[in-house]
Amino acid sequence: MPRLPKNFYNPVSLIGSGIALVSFGTVIIFFLMDVLGYTQSPYLGIFTYMIIPAVMVFGLLLIPFGAILERRRLRKHGNVPRRYLVVDLNEPTHRTAVMIFTVVTMLLVVVSAAGTYQAYNYSESVEFCGEVCHVVMEPEYVAYQHSPHARVSCAECHIGGGADWFVKAKISGAYQVYSVMFDKFARPIETPIANLRPARETCEECHWPNVFTGVKELAKVYYPIDTTESEPWTIVMNLKIGGGQSELGPTTGIHWHMNTANVVRYVATDQKRQVIPWIESTDLTGKTKIYRSIETTVEDAELAKHEKRTMDCIDCHNRPSHIYYPPFRTINDAMALNRIDSTLPNIRALASVALTNEYRTKEEALRLIPSFVRRELRTHAPNVLRTRTNDVDRSIREIMAIYTRNFFPEMKVTWQHYPNNIGHTYDLGCFRCHDNKHVTEDGEVLTNDCNVCHTIVEQGPTSNPQQNIRGMEFVHPADIDGAWRDVPCSSCHLGI
Ligand code: HEC
Ligand code: HEC
Ligand code: HEC
Ligand code: HEC
Ligand code: HEC
Ligand code: HEC
Q1: Virtual CA dihedral for 13, 15, 16, 21, nearest 10 degrees?
Q2: Ligand approaching nearest to the C-alpha of 236
Q3: Which residues line ligand 5 (CB under 6 A)?
Q4: Contact yes or no for 329/495 (Cβ under 8 A)
Q5: Distance from the alpha carbon of residue 313 to the mean position of ligand 4, in angstroms
Q6: Which of the chain's termini has less CB crowding within 10 Å, N or C?
Q7: Is the pLDDT of residue 1 over 60?
Q8: So what's the pLDDT on residue 46?
């Protein structure tokens, strides 16, 4: 005696319920594995919350689909009268069907609400963004883990709150999954991101302009190429990071640009926003000034074709989380921390060459870096290798660690592809605008005064630096005949 209406007994519905049952069981098992922490695989989430539920829904849809087909077939053979569906609760088969339908639907609603919530959480998780597409996202993910934002989730900067950006992110996310599957992505990934949410809507969730006050100390020790000939050089400066509070009226400081009363708009003629021929600044009183680069050859008609971008946080902080440091900077900082031993002969240059040699893969680099450094030391300083094994090993380990954090040959990522707009030493950064070459019609020059953004309070050889709390004129550590006054720092300081 059949327990369901006849047309439910057909191969399609049967296969459908089979699929649904098996995938339901799998989801439950995987879900428990995930919750109980049996496995750390990032793929588990994709299967548990995305792929298998989709299969389950497919199976469930097959059941009524099969039933409809079967009904048509039976009707063709004259076994069913032509009428609309009648539910008669006095019929035991109908009763069972209604009961199964109600229970399963209720179960589904509950499970899919929980599932949707999990799927949502999962698609926003750092795990999903950073680990699933591990080759593609490796550079961003690794750099992120070593950044000040290592505990801020990817979605908090890349999506933020609200439904509209959530939907936009999922649409572009679907395209990204496609481009990874069919190998259509650029290596390295292009920057800046074309449709990044305006930074003021994301960054300001945590850092709002009113908290930008005072100064921030930047203290550095720089190691010379040959530590046996000259001594390290110290620079301590106060960065004037204030300027955000409009309540205080006209304020000064670096975050002046972000004071909501001031608006800076600019035109960049290159994709990475490094060449800026036109800048417009509007202050508290609504007074507008237009600065043009005296070096530009771009005509007004050409300028009009470009986007006039309103400056926001990422025009300076374009690397808040994915920072690929130039080798010189990381080597120097590791020497200051004595992770790379500054007394090893010629170690700064050796480390620099070891890092910037061409490697095809990370494995190859990590294999060749130690042998390169040892070989060089053996040829030029054989007894060092014998007598100071520990110092050599420690330094090599650090060079390899620097490589792992900052170089990604599979994605062709190095500091060179991603200019950092904070500062001006290795990239143009602030000097894209503050270069002494942007002038208004009245002849006002956009400032390049070394004391506008910071004051140097200490500088000189580390054993005997000069100090002055009121600030002092910059002394370039190497004798370059005052060239730093005329040439941007980054045209000599390439980071190597
Ligand atoms: C503190 C905010 C922040 C966090 C957290 C963050 N990002 Fe970013 N991300 C940015 C900014 C800003 C850019 C550069 C935007 C630009 O210049 O257009 C960027 C750029 C990128 C790019 C484009 C390539 C590049 O380097 O410019 C990728 C890919 C990316 N992020 C992935 C991730 C992933 C994956 C995570 C989490 C593991 C993450 N991001 C976390 C702010 C963040
Ligand atoms: C969810 C909160 C959150 C968001 C969103 C966020 N940050 Fe942060 N940010 C932090 C935390 C936490 C720190 C570390 C605090 C500290 O070091 O004092 C930090 C530190 C920083 C620092 C100091 C870094 C340093 O070297 O000390 C900068 C600059 C910064 N954030 C810029 C940004 C920018 C730009 C954005 C938007 C793209 C952003 N943040 C978005 C929480 C956030
Ligand atoms: C897109 C061009 C642009 C970039 C890039 C830029 N600035 Fe500015 N900056 C301006 C303009 C325009 C003014 C306002 C000048 C005026 O009209 O008074 C300004 C003013 C300033 C002031 C003076 C504010 C005051 O009146 O006290 C400081 C300090 C400053 N910028 C620091 C920086 C720093 C630091 C960087 C790099 C991290 C930077 N700027 C990058 C365009 C820029
Ligand atoms: C004109 C360039 C510029 C703009 C625009 C800008 N910043 Fe900054 N910001 C700086 C510089 C330069 C520093 C100091 C250097 C550093 O910390 O690396 C700094 C420092 C910070 C710090 C660290 C402060 C501390 O006490 O350590 C935070 C947080 C920050 N900025 C957030 C933001 C946010 C959020 C925005 C957008 C509302 C923004 N900034 C816009 C240039 C800028
Ligand atoms: C428009 C603002 C601005 C102007 C003008 C400016 N600087 Fe800077 N400078 C910065 C910022 C911002 C940093 C910090 C970057 C960082 O956080 O690493 C910096 C860093 C430095 C450093 C430390 C270098 C490093 O990266 O280790 C030196 C030295 C320096 N500046 C010298 C000068 C000299 C000399 C001048 C005048 C020719 C000058 N600056 C003009 C904004 C400015
Ligand atoms: C004409 C080329 C040139 C220009 C322009 C230049 N530098 Fe240098 N700089 C050098 C050379 C060469 C050295 C010494 C070689 C070395 O130790 O790397 C040096 C050394 C330094 C050092 C000591 C640590 C180091 O990197 O070796 C600092 C800090 C520095 N320069 C900052 C600046 C700043 C800031 C500017 C811009 C205001 C600037 N330089 C402009 C060529 C230049």
Answers
A1: 120
A2: 5
A3: 218, 220, 235, 239, 422-425, 430, 434, 448-450, 452-454, 474, 484
A4: yes
A5: 7
A6: N
A7: no
A8: 72
Residue 248 has a pLDDT of 65
Residue-wise pLDDT tens digits, 105-134: 788 778 777 777 777 788 788 877 877 777
Q: How far is CA 129 from CA 41, 124, 138, 419, in A?
A: 14, 7, 10, 23
| C-alpha angle 224-228-232 in degrees, rounded to nearest 5 | 35
> Which whole-number Å values give the CA distances from 232 to 74, 294, 327, 332, 424, in the listed order?
92, 38, 18, 10, 21
Task: Tokens for 255, please give them.
Answer: 């975050």
Q: Which of 424, 494, 493, 485 is nearest to 454 (CA)?
A: 424
How is residue 411 written in tokens?
A: 């994605």
| Calpha distance 172→318 (Å, rounded) | 21
Q: What are the angstrom distances between the C-alpha of 172 and each of 167, 176, 179, 193, 195? A: 9, 6, 10, 12, 10
**Given this model, what pLDDT does residue 212 score?**
84
Does 198 sit behind a cis peptide bond, omega within 30 degrees of 0 on the bond before it? no
Q: How many CB atoms lie within 10 A of CB 129?
A: 22
Mutate which of 142, 312, 317, 321 for ligand 1 pocket (most atoms within 8 A of beta carbon) = 321
Q: Half-sphere exposure (CA, 13 Å, Cβ side) for 124? A: 18
- Provide CB contacts within 8 A for 314, sequence distance 6+: 192, 196, 199, 203, 320
Closest residue CA from atom 25 of ligand 4? 216
59: Cα within 13 Å, side-chain hemisphere: 19
Residue with token string 């849809």: 61
Amino acid at residue number 482: G
Q: Measure the CA–CA gap between 453 and 255, rounded to whole angstroms.
A: 10
Residues 382, 123: contact at Cβ < 8 Å? no
Q: Is the peptide bond before 188 cis (omega within 30 degrees of 0)?
A: yes
Q: How many residues does the chain have?
A: 496
The per-residue pLDDT for range 50-83, each reduced to its tens digit, is 788 888 889 989 998 998 999 888 888 876 655 6
Judge contact between 243 and 254, C-beta under 8 A. yes
Angstrom distance (rounded) from CA 17 to CA 64: 10
For residue 213, give both structure tokens.
Answer: 């006050």
Model confidence over 262-318: pLDDT tens digits?
A: 899 999 999 999 999 999 999 888 899 999 999 988 888 889 999 999 999 999 999
In the numeric block, which tokens belong to residue 249? 């009226």
Residue entry with tokens 């990475």: 272
The residue behind tokens 């000097």 is 431
